[in-house]
Automatic annotation (TrEMBL):
InterPro entries: Cation-dep_OMT (IPR050362), SAM-dependent_MTases_sf (IPR029063), SAM_O-MeTrfase (IPR002935). It comes from Weeksella virosa (strain ATCC 43766 / DSM 16922 / JCM 21250 / CCUG 30538 / CDC 9751 / IAM 14551 / NBRC 16016 / NCTC 11634 / CL345/78). The keyword Amino-acid biosynthesis does not apply. The lineage of its organism: Bacteria, Pseudomonadati, Bacteroidota, Flavobacteriia, Flavobacteriales. Gene3D superfamilies: Vaccinia Virus protein VP39. Coiled coil: none annotated. Keywords: Methyltransferase, S-adenosyl-L-methionine, Transferase. Pfam families: Methyltransf_3 (PF01596). GO terms for molecular function: caffeoyl-CoA O-methyltransferase activity. It is an enzyme of class 2 (transferase). It comes from the Bacteria. One of its GO terms (biological process) is methylation. This is Caffeoyl-CoA O-methyltransferase.
Length: 213
């Protein structure tokens, strides 16, 4: 994550809508049951995802990388009536946590939780059927997720791509590990891609907001 002034962080959280109780509970369980709780979006980023989803009012959302389901529930807050969110994860070990909180949420009938490699699962989704995609899984496959998401999105649809600043390493010329290079190259490609409009939000580890033209 990009280091931000703790005072600024506190101020942002205090002047952003409160974290819903169910999500607060989910975050506590995520800390207790997992070794990498920071992977969950959390309060501030979660409210951003919720707000963007509410502005779009998507009929169909795809999330790549469920983890414990925190962002799934934030994104679901903006779903159109009878809309649905498909969330994908390769790991079934934390499925019991996501399922428990999905079941307790008002969106329980709108969440389709699939276990398996995302690239395989994405092949089963109809082209130009999605309104919003949240890319938040293995970084080495981001270029493939990006291309595939463009095909699956309708015109005017939106991609949110998380961790694009990669701890600030994408703009550190001395950082050249594999994931950093992949993300740096992808950021270059996205900003030059004539099929989309895009900007990077400096939120947590960086989120690219991309609109398919
Ligand atoms: C950063 S976490 C997702 C966090 C969640 N979106 C949130 O904001 O609360 C990344 C997740 O991607 C999953 N993942 C990694 N490789 C994957 C793959 N090839 N296909 C699907 N999911 C994968 C991991 O198991 C992990 O749960």
């Amino acid at each position: 994550m990009i280091e931000i002034d703790p005072n600024l962080n506190q101020y942002l959280e205090k002047h952003t809508n409160e974290e819903p109780d169910l999500l607060r509970e989910l975050m506590i369980e995520t800390h207790q049951a997992t070794t990498q709780p920071h992977m969950a979006s959390g309060h501030y980023q979660g409210r951003i995802l919720s707000m963007i989803s509410k502005l779009i009012q998507p009929k169909t959302i795809l999330e790549i990388g469920t983890f414990t389901g925190y962002a799934t529930l934030c994104l679901a807050e903006g779903l159109a009536e009878n809309g649905k969110i498909i969330t994908l994860d390769i790991n079934d070990e934390l499925k019991y946590i996501g399922e428990k909180y999905f079941e307790r949420s008002p969106y329980k009938n709108q969440i389709e939780y699939r276990i398996g490699p995302a690239s395989e699962q994405m092949k089963t989704i109809e082209k130009e059927s999605l309104d919003l995609v949240f890319i938040d899984a293995d970084k080495q496959t981001y270029p493939e997720y990006y291309e595939c998401s463009i095909d699956l999105l309708r015109n005017g649809g939106v991609i949110l791509m998380d961790n694009v600043l990669w701890y600030g390493k994408v703009y550190d010329e001395n950082a050249n590990d594999k994931r950093t290079v992949i993300l740096r190259d992808l950021n270059e490609r996205v900003v030059k891609d004539s099929r989309v409009e895009s900007l990077i939000l400096p939120v947590r580890d960086g989120i690219t907001l991309i609109r398919k033209k």
